[in-house]
């Protein structure tokens, strides 16, 4: 293998789910399946009446009644992950699985074209010595995707790209996930105009759509700076640990001169392994190649079309349901186009596509397992009962406690129901009238719902997007939990304070 070929194989963009990450995540979700099954045995069955208006199902307030329905058989706890493929709403599950398989196969092709590697190298060179500036820009970019446009699962294709950037800068997989997954999730939750949380929730609560944005902008700014400080602090600790480890390995003396020399980042070789390979920055010469230039330009044009379509979905009714299929088509076009420009034989492209599908396939199992938890709770007829008990507690509380109860109820329900819109139609028809009775403005109720819906999306192991992102980055759920629980606790305190302030100022218009 010549030097050029060796250089180009050092930085991999292929999505390969690690065995350890898969086993850990699958074990946790399987345990949750059992817990969900047990809940269907100990919690009384009951249900609210549903009404359908304009083709949308919502809950009728005050209609709850306990039922004497037959309990869910134990064997269905274990068949639930398969049943979700045939149950109502299966189109969503199948769409997500196909989306992930297509993205995985396309990244396998893009990996062989080296286009992503070249782009990451260019970006790292552009911000050389300005890493905190780059962090600030990336976090703002991903948070705005979630906050303004409601993008969450659509950002999965960008995760491997940011992982590569993190490795190129000498950092690890966690930083890549903080800059992409965590930032998008926090942006989605500290929404300014997220159509899937703010838009839907305000319509159900009969509020002017996107009203009360002033306070939400403040919330967004606070969460942004908290996450930015978290990332900067993480990289500082990472650098310190890496340098300290280097000193121990080298047996450095305690003399100040030697210590200062060995703590120089330029003298330390960072750990940049990914899927057993190493990051190599020797791409400068190859960037002058016309094929590479054309491929890079083609990449940026295609990605721009993708974002243009995503923005268009906000203004054209019905397009939002087509966002995942469209993004999948964009990546197929991108993979085939770049491989053609780089003159990769069609036979090889087909082999890369096959390898990509095999590498990402375990994600489909994780998705089915996660959706199985929701399936058990719903079919066990205890979801409405949980909501009924929580709502009863809320009616006996002060306005501040009632507002916080809306937050906590949504937070609990988010464990079982990932979809923001589905949760809104289930919870808000019940919680909004209760908010009125508790002297809580409907705008506060929507804010509490917004907080409860989102931040835990990047914490709960039942969220498919989190599981997929962790799987493709080779990070176990337990490791992710340990890395992020501190900032989740900080955000929980901050959002609780914001809800209290919102109640005290009569956040409205009503």
Number of helices: 21
The parts where pLDDT drops under 50 for at least 5 residues are 1-10, 253-281
Output the helix-strand order: HHEEEEHHHHHHHHHEEHHHHHHHHHH
Widest β-sheet, arrangement of strands: 1-4
**Overall pLDDT confidence:** 84
Q: Using only CA atoms, what is the Rg? A: 24 Å
Total domain units: 1
Question: Terminal Cα separation, in Å?
Answer: 69 Å
Outline the biggest β-sheet.
2 strands, antiparallel
The number of strands is 6
Give the helix level as a range of percent: 55-70%
Strand content: under 5%
Overall shape: it is globular
Coarse structural class: mainly alpha
Could you explain how this protein is built, in words?
The protein has 510 residues and is mainly alpha-helical. The chain has one domain. Helices cover 69% and strands 3% of the residues. It has 21 helices and six strands. The chain has helices at residues 3-8, 19-42, 75-83, 90-113, 115-126, 131-149, 159-168, 173-189, 195-204, 213-250, 256-262, 290-312, 323-341, 346-360, 362-379, 383-395, 399-416, 420-437, 442-454, 464-473, 477-504; strands at residues 46-47, 50-53, 56-59, 65-66, 273-274, 277-278. Strands 1-4 form a two-stranded antiparallel ribbon. Strands 2-3 form a two-stranded antiparallel ribbon. A two-stranded antiparallel sheet has the order 5-6. The protein is globular and about 70 Å long. The model is unreliable at 1-10 and 253-281 (pLDDT under 50).
Briefly summarize what is shown.
With 510 residues, this protein is mainly α. The chain has 21 helices and 6 strands. The longest helix is centred in the middle third of the chain and has 38 residues, at 213-250.
């Amino acid at each position: 293998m010549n030097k050029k070929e060796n250089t180009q194989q050092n930085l991999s963009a292929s999505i390969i789910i690690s065995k350890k990450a898969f086993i850990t995540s699958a074990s946790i979700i399987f345990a949750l399946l059992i817990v969900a099954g047990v809940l269907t045995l100990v919690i009384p069955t009951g249900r609210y009446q549903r009404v359908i208006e304009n083709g949308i199902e919502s809950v009728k307030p005050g209609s709850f009644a306990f039922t004497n329905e037959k309990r869910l058989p134990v064997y269905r706890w274990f068949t639930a992950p398969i049943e979700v493929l045939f149950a109502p709403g299966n189109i969503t599950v199948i769409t997500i699985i196909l989306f992930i398989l297509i993205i995985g196969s396309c990244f396998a092709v893009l990996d062989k074209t080296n286009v992503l590697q070249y782009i990451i190298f260019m970006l790292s060179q552009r911000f050389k010595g300005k890493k905190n500036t780059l962090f600030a820009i990336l976090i703002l970019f991903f948070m705005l995707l979630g906050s303004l446009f409601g993008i969450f699962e659509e950002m999965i294709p960008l995760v491997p790209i940011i992982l590569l950037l993190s490795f190129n800068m000498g950092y690890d997989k966690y930083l890549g996930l903080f800059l992409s997954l965590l930032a998008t999730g926090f942006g989605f939750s500290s929404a300014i105009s997220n159509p899937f949380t703010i838009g839907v929730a305000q319509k159900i609560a009969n509020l002017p759509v996107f009203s009360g944005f002033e306070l939400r902008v403040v919330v967004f700014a606070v969460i942004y700076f908290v996450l930015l400080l978290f990332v900067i602090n993480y990289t500082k600790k990472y650098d310190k640990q890496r340098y300290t480890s280097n000193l121990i390995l080298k047996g450095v003396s305690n003399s100040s001169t030697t210590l200062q020399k060995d703590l120089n980042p330029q003298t330390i070789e960072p750990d940049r392994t990914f899927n057993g390979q190493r990051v190599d920055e020797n791409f400068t010469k190859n960037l002058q190649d016309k094929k590479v230039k054309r491929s890079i330009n083609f990449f940026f044009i295609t990605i721009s079309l993708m974002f243009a379509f995503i923005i268009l979905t906000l203004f054209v009714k019905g397009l939002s349901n087509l966002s995942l299929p469209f993004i999948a088509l964009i990546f197929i076009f991108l993979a085939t186009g770049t491989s053609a420009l780089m003159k990769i034989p069609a036979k090889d492209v087909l082999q890369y596509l096959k390898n990509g599908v095999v590498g990402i396939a375990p994600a489909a199992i994780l998705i089915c397992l996660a959706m199985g938890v929701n399936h058990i709770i719903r079919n066990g007829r205890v979801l409405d009962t949980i909501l009924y008990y929580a709502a009863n507690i809320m009616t006996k509380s002060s306005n501040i406690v009632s507002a916080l109860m809306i937050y906590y109820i949504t937070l609990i329900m988010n464990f079982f129901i990932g979809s923001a819109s589905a949760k809104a139609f289930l919870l808000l028809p019940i919680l909004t009238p209760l908010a009125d009775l508790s002297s809580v403005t409907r705008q506060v109720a929507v804010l509490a719902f917004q907080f409860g819906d989102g931040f835990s999306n990047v914490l709960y192991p039942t969220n498919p997007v989190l599981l997929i992102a962790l799987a493709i980055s080779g990070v176990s759920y337990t490791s992710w939990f340990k890395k992020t629980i501190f900032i989740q606790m900080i955000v929980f305190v901050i959002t609780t304070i914001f809800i209290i302030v919102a109640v005290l100022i009569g956040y409205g218009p009503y």
